[in-house]
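Sample entry (194 residues):
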Amino acid sequence: MKRLITISFTIILATLSFFAQSSKEAAVRTVPSVDLNKYSGTWYEIAKYPNKFQKDCVGNVTATYTLKGEGKLEVLNRCLEKDGTTKAAKAAGKVNDKKTNAKLKVRFAPGFTSFLPFVWANYWVIDLASDYSHAVVATPDRDYFWILSRTPDLKDNVYQDILRRAEAQRFSPSKVVKTPQGLETGKGAVLNQS
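Predicted structure, serialized as tokens:
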């Protein structure tokens, strides 16, 4: 009887342990490595999770990365706003994982705040074409997600493959919104070029 109770108790504990572990969300995986020289340059935002930082942007979103020394870079984000003006925001960036260069930290706050850990945002490269023609950047908490390309558009089959790989990492394709590119301005209004 004692043995039966011990076996039953062991099975119950193993079952509870299994469910506790399976309920934990798997960690976001980055790409194995990023060549920062190849990653530098201008990227076009193809799609993203909507976020408060870009709420006034209607399209033409780009991010330009410039190397600024060992493990440091500058990020210049631009977008077209509803009133037809271009908004730009400059950030400092640094490599947070020197083994892969795939985990970056970005700070839009003033330089004098750089010693504060909470002003640095995670910026992980989770998908990257071998020719650096497209990339996916996200945060490890899965709250932010961007699909980037070296060109203003991306073939639909490539886009769908990216979404499938993101979904395998538990990102939600239903939350992803495409970003219009090629918009032109006109007297305070945004007009579509196509």
